[in-house]
Amino acid sequence: MIVLDYNKVEDIKRFLYYDASIFYRENKKVRTIVVYSSDIENVEECVDAGTIKYRIEPFYMINIDGDEKLEYLKNKIQNKEKLTKEDMMVMTFLPLMRGRESRSERAIKSIELAQSIEDNGIKLECISMLYALLDKFGDKVTKKKLKEMITMTEIGKMIREEAIEEGIEKGKTKGKSELIIKLLIKKFNKIPKNYTDKINNLSNETLDIIATDIFDMDKIDELEKYF
Question: InterPro entries this protein is in (predicted)?
């Protein structure tokens, strides 16, 4: 699945190359679904490359009522019902759906809603997914609000609670470093193995600094200054 907020035929050609490479390497059929934000509808769906006729499957967020989905999730969280994987995905994409308010306003409401989730594991996952989406599609106001809300205090609290649940002795850095690595993977898709090893050996203080700085990083190699 690929998420876009613009429409370019060149992207379809790029997806053709990726899918053909995967098919050649893995010998498996590939299904490419492209999710378009509510600003876009009726995109170019196929490329005619002669003997090759390639088509994507577009999914238009303009067809989904974001206000209705927001209300549904709000009621579910207020009633302390456990969110499903589908619910978490819906929450992540709320800013890209159709709604009465601007994308920035819907993004902030999505973040606030995620913050109200009681289950710390689900809360962290939702916030991480929202960050990954808004880091790419959010405006400056949304990103600033997101950074303010995802403070080290909140992340630190979730880390400590998760560490207790997993039986990690208080004072050890293992639980914290693992969550930092998860956040980095959410932002950059993957991180080099040598970075993972180095993060696992960092002090609590350095991990705290990285946790707050993650939201300003543009490149994974910016981690070098902490090692």
Answer: DUF4351
Give the domain ranges of the chain: 2-63, 66-226
Whole-number pLDDT of residue 162: 53
pLDDT for 13-23, tens place per residue? Answer: 888 988 898 88
Nearest Cα to Cα of residue 155 among 196, 114, 124, 116: 124
User: Tokens for 101?
Assistant: 């308010």
Distance (Å, whole) CA 127 – CA 107: 11
Give the predicted TM-score (pTM) of the model: 0.60
Reported as a pLDDT band with limits 50, 70 and 90, residue 70 is: very high
Instruction: Give residue 187's identity as a one-letter amino acid code.
Output: K
Tokens 């299904």 correspond to 31
The closest alpha carbon to 120, from 74, 166, 86, belongs to: 166
Neighbours of 34 (CB within 10 A): 20
